[in-house]
Automatic annotation (TrEMBL):
Ranges that cross the membrane: none
InterPro entries: Lipid/polyisoprenoid-bd_YceI, TTHA0802/YceI-like_sf
Superkingdom of the source species: Bacteria
Keywords assigned: Signal
Domain Lipid/polyisoprenoid-binding YceI-like: 38-202
Pfam families: YceI
Full protein name: Polyisoprenoid-binding protein
Signal peptide start and end residues: 1-25
Entries under SUPFAM superfamilies matching the protein: YceI-like (SSF101874)
Amino acid sequence: MKSSLFSFPAATLAIGLLAGNPASAQVVTNATQIQSGVYDVEPGHTQVGFEVLHFGFTNYLGVFSNVSGTLNLDPKNPSASKLSVTIPVDSVQTTSAKLNDELKGDQWFDAAKFPNATFESTSVRLSGKNDAVVTGNLTLHGVTKPETLKVHFIGAGVNALDKKYTIGFEATGVIKRSDFGVKMYVPYVSDDVHLRIAGAFERQD
């Protein structure tokens, strides 16, 4: 039997959404309505994207996946919230298999020696109704430096498929890879690395 894009339960979900399934209306977009608690990273829908300027010709993209971590969230007192994430470096992916292998090697990330990058928040400051500035310690390639992310809340609610309460954010930032000892081809491949992160978290009951 051939699989289909609209196989069950995908078909059921699609039809329900088209028909105005109440599940789609349960998502809130006001950060003050987020449920407090302890959340785990939902790795299937969390991506750490990066972009570098390649020899002045193209803005080249890549992504890390299989992220793990926790978020202790208190919407009524955001400054008390804490974020801790771990990113396996060998999850790096681009559109080039050869480059993927090079990036894992000792001239770049050296994944064998430094298998994980981590981020531990040290402060959370609201900058708008649905926005915050999160500062923390980023450890990459064996070096720890303070870095700052601009975080935007996207939505929260019960996932229609797995019935878990889920919240989602987008975060952006810029780091200098040479600060972490990753200097290969600087400045031909830009020292500035632009980050764009899709973060999904599930509340733990």
